[in-house]
Write the structure tokens for this entry.
Amino acid sequence: MSVFNDRQRAVLTAFAEAAFPAVPGLPGAAEAAIPEGAFDALFATADTEVADLVRKAIFVFEHATRVFDFTLRGFSRLPLERRMHVVERWESSRFYWRRMVCLLLKMTTGMPYASTPAVEQAVGYDRLCQHEGGAPR
């Protein structure tokens, strides 16, 4: 089941790249390669109201960038450095709703990012509850 359309997934991917850049010892979201469908899987069993809220947050973040940053392009079409700056500004905004939209998107993208094999390996996480076939014990 597809929760997000291609445009919304593109905004989430662009957000993840900006919110989780590479740092020494830890790959960024671009290098970690969040699997196709990871964002959809996160909300596939959630209430429709929750998925609707996330879709609205994606829309607001994508288009509010045009207003607050005086650009003709939406967030996902900005260069990476500019997107990183936008995320930082939203995280530290004095406006509660901007911080909460940013936090919602950070949580939405952070869980699939942190679950990628590259990030799990970098932080030393080992899936002890799985056997060779990948299924839980």
Residues 2 and 40 are 6 Å apart (CA to CA). The first helix runs from residue 6 to 19. The chain has seven helices and no strands.
